[in-house]
Design a protein that fits this description.
This protein has about 475 residues and is α+β, with helices and mostly antiparallel strands. Helix content is about 35%, strand content about 20%. It has a six-stranded mixed beta sheet, with helices on both faces. It has a five-stranded antiparallel beta sheet with strand order 10-11-15-14-13, with no helix packed on it. The relative contact order is 0.14.
Amino acid sequence: MALKKNSYKKFSLKKKIILICVSVISLAIISFFTGFGIYAYKLNKAIPMELSSEVLQQNQSVIKELYKEPLIQNLPYSVKVDDIFIHAKSAILLDASTGWILYEKNADEVIPPASMTKVVLMYLALDALEKGKIKLTDKIDLPPESWAKNAPPHSSLMFLGKDQNVTFEEILIGMNVVSGNDAAVAVAMCLFGTVENCIAKMNEVVKNLGLTKTHFVEVSGYSENNLTTAREFAIFSRSYISRFPESLQKYHSIKSFTYPKKHNLPSYIDYEDAKVNGIPLEGTMPITQKATNRSLDVIPGADGLKTGYIDESGFNLSLTVLRNGTRLISVTMGGPGNGSIEGNKFRTEDSLAIMNWGFALFRSERILDCYKMNTTAPGGTEKSFILTESILDNHFITVPNLKDANGKFLPLTRNITVDEKIEAPITLGKQYGKIDYYMGDYLLQTVPLVADRTISEGNIFVKLYGKIYNLF
């Protein structure tokens, strides 16, 4: 009987141990899944932690750099279009807001830019103004190299001369409106001391933009050894307008220019006498000239940029036109013409044809609301983050002018796709979805949806909860 009692005690102890283990395990399982339930509930209700303005700005800068768009690129969709006739050897048309190429013809042919060169010099001048290195009202010394009488033969001139009183702003206007080669030399020497230093800076600017076929040996465009292509000059023109949009109204859309005025002449010259007896090349007779860009008078919405002509290049024109909120940029190079009257005629006809064609088929549409959505981060040290479009501001789409049966433009629509399973670690700027922009059946653009922050993995339990969460 004693043996049986001991056996019963051992069995009873074993049973108790099993019951305790089962209870502990059950309690652990219940606790684990209760914890998971609480975690999942909080995860679903989580609102992304607000970032400080400094961190937000830094993160947005990272996203912008990761998804930086090229200055120009091919239209990301196909539209059946009719050919247009362009006299010029080389041409390109793009939407200034997106950089999308709408039309091109031999756009990579290397041709001297002629006086379009002055836009690059203008870029350096406006950069110096922006950085406070010079003021528009500063009086400019005119070295002999900048006098009209010392310019190369057949130069376009502002008619700078000895002892004139001229401001930096007046020289910029003369350089752009009447394409003064003398003005270009004055700007170059004023800003950089020597023409050679200026040429080096011009080449540095275009190199930094990735322009490999554009090169300058001279500042005014007189030399046939200055080289570019329609494509590369369109890239530069868009960069210039993007950085200095105010320059179009201030310098490039003026239709005539008179110089020298009374205050420009030295005190020993009588202005009324100068009108009659002055000598233009000495800079002592007031001369009124029309803008070299004759398209300003002919093409609706034209407000810049720059003409160019030398025998080796033919008639060139970099032009921008604004209509109904859409800005297009065209570059035509190698235009024909026997003399300036005929050359201007063909050059203007080309620009009018290409612009009318572009505006008839396309327009810019701005996306006013950058799409954002709260997104869970299973397994992370933070429970949620924001998925945002990679284009954070100034989001434009070049849309075809498609209309419905009632003659109204078709609306843009969004199709949003988010990755099914997202879990920590979350990486700032990493794509976790996309937005497809449609107009009718046309897929116009696909924009990545990216994380607005970095989130590390949590501890072992949080990581496990995250994986279970994604299973369901």
